[in-house]
Write a structure and sequence with these properties.
By secondary structure, this protein is α/β, with parallel strands linked by helices. It is built from nine helices and 14 strands.
């Protein structure tokens, strides 16, 4: 099974830690974020992993080499010359992720006890679904909105009031808000749809542009812990 780890971020929220260490190598309970995630993916049956790199990327390359790639097949998508954001980063890695099987995308700074194997199987059961997004009910400034069939319909920034949706007369009050956890299962068909998208772009912007035509579903794992450790206040809980 294939997966992509988004590890190219600048780690601005964790400065000064990330001035000299890439976010992916910031330690959690004695091991880098990246190591925790690689071992979790391996345990769930993902054996071919693509990792994108940018800020201090050479440190990530050295870390992987020193650990024998943790017994995994690892591809590196190099963004050191130009940071492509989440959507652009996925598109650039198409040569590693294309094929007939869906692939997992996982932010490196998301820590969870979600059963990723069950998540994979759930996506496989839904014929025709472009992507399945792991979500929960955490309070967040930015929310994704889903209809009664768990289908993505819109987005809102609660602080600014900005709303994005291609649905006519979209009103957030008519939908259920969830927080996207940066973990998603994706059909390789996505690369055909990305042909006109170039350079740096957000995967959420892409999903919002296509969700009126193709189903993008939510997935919830009640009782599971999902933590963004890319913030100082949450990272401190796991140091």
């Amino acid at each position: 099974m294939k997966a992509m780890i988004l590890a190219a971020g600048l780690g601005k929220r964790l400065r000064p830690l990330t001035d000299t260490t890439p976010k992916a190598l910031v330690p959690l309970r004695g091991k880098p974020m990246l190591e925790h995630l690689l071992l979790k993916l391996k345990a769930a049956g993902f054996n071919e992993i693509t990792i994108n790199i940018h800020h201090l990327g050479e440190q990530i390359l050295a870390f992987l080499k020193a650990n024998g790639n943790f017994g995994l097949t690892i591809h590196v998508s190099d963004e050191r010359n130009y940071l492509l954001d989440t959507g652009g980063g996925i598109k650039q890695a198409a040569e590693f992720l294309s094929g007939r099987e869906p692939f997992l995308v996982h932010n490196v700074d998301i820590l969870s006890d979600v059963d990723l194997g069950a998540f994979y199987r759930s996506h496989r059961k839904e014929a025709g679904v472009l992507a399945t997004l792991l979500v929960d009910s955490r309070n967040s400034v930015r929310s994704l909105f889903f209809d009664a069939h768990d289908r993505l319909c819109g987005w809102q920034n609660k602080e600014t009031g900005e709303i994005r949706s291609f649905y006519p007369d979209f009103s957030p009050e008519a939908y259920t808000p969830y927080t996207f956890g940066g973990v998603h299962m994706v059909s390789p068909r996505i690369f055909e749809l990305m042909e006109e998208w170039t350079g740096r772009f957000s995967i959420v912007d892409f999903y919002l542009s296509v969700c009126i035509r193709l189903p993008i579903r939510s997935y919830r794992s009640p009782g599971s812990v999902l933590v963004d450790v890319g913030k100082p206040e949450t990272l401190a809980l796991f140091r």
